[in-house]
Write a structure and sequence with these properties.
With 301 residues, this protein is an alpha/beta fold. The protein has 2 domains: 165 residues, P-loop containing nucleotide triphosphate hydrolases (Rossmann fold, 3-Layer(aba) Sandwich), CATH 3.40.50; 110 residues, GMP Synthetase, Chain A, domain 3 (2-Layer Sandwich). It is built from 9 helices and 9 strands. The protein has a 6-stranded mixed β-sheet, with helices on both faces. Helix 6 crosses helix 8. The longest helix is centred in the last third of the chain and has 18 residues.
């Protein structure tokens, strides 16, 4: 198609700035898990946005944060590496911050190095007065020549069309890289692991979730006695300490039952098929510093 545009976009920002919520709004489908906790996104998740005159591939990167573990360092390396490889950058900042944080200053340095067209998105404007938004815009405008600055509320309002139009301006003329019915590059196994982890993030105490690792061990299609198909899924949910295992399982297995039920409900909606889900909780001490796990599951390929 003449003048059809396509290309790759990196969505970057501090942890808990609202990136996953924004990505899901842009795509119109649940692609990235969301939770009001830090370090929700761990891997680079691609979302495909198919429009009449463009195909936009947005990568939701792990949030920039201070961390010393092998996992944290790998997550941050992934975010910064992707900036260099895309056609356009979406830089999401928390509008409730009065000045540029140390993490956002680091992101700005990487954007300057990459010299990529960048759209600044100021999120959570529903929580702050207009004069403070304008002040924050001026602060960032003096730091970099952004292609556009768009204030939004990813949770409440819908400024997605304005953002998508701005992205299109920075994309080259090109082909469709994915089929029109695709909206993510994640496999069904990966989506299952992320959904289970999302439910654990939302339901568990603050000290537990960041040490959680989910691995699907079995994903198969079976049939009921009435020949109705369903997905039979078995997964291990790893945690860092024995004490955490007890919290995840809960009294009489109630917490694990909640996580499993909420995850199964979401998966059935996503896959449009009944799901039989079984989760086992196991301890894998210090897995966040194990090369064999971190490099396999989280390092950018």
């Amino acid at each position: 198609m003449e003048n059809f545009r396509s290309g790759f976009v990196s969505l970057i920002g501090k942890t808990n700035s609202g990136k996953s919520t924004l990505l899901n709004k842009l795509v119109g489908e649940k692609v990235s898990i969301t939770a009001y906790k830090t370090q929700t996104t761990r891997t680079a998740i691609k979302a495909i946005i198919n429009r009449e005159n463009s195909q936009i591939i947005v990568t939701d990167t792990p949030g920039i944060h201070k961390g010393k573990s092998k996992l944290s360092k790998t997550m941050i390396d992934t975010s910064y590496t992707i900036i260099k490889e895309v056609d356009c950058v979406l830089f999401l900042v928390d509008g409730t911050e009065k000045e540029i944080s140390a993490e956002n200053e680091q992101i700005l340095d990487k954007i300057r190095e990459a010299k990529k067209p960048t759209i600044l998105i100021i999120n959570k404007i529903d929580l702050i007065p207009k004069d403070k938004i304008l002040k924050l815009i001026d602060i960032y405008r003096n730091e970099y020549d952004f292609k556009a600055i768009i204030p939004i509320s990813a949770l409440k309002n819908n400024e997605t069309e304005e953002i998508l139009l701005e992205i299109e301006k920075s994309l080259p003329v090109g082909p469709k890289y994915y089929n029109e019915d695709e909206y993510t590059d994640q496999t069904m196994r990966q989506m299952t692991e992320e959904v289970i982890r999302e439910k654990a993030l939302k339901l568990l105490n603050d000290e537990v979730p960041h040490g959680i690792l989910v691995e699907v061990q079995k994903f198969e299609t079976k049939k009921t006695t009435k020949s109705e198909p369903f997905y039979n899924i078995e997964a291990n949910l790893y945690c860092l300490r024995e004490a955490h295992k007890g919290i995840i399982i809960g009294k009489g297995g109630e917490m694990l039952k909640k996580i499993s039920t909420f995850a199964r409900t979401d998966l059935e909606k996503m896959f449009d098929l009944k799901v039989n889900l079984r989760i086992w909780v196991k301890v894998k001490e210090d897995w966040i510093n194990m090369d064999s796990i971190v490099n396999k599951k989280f390092k950018l390929k």
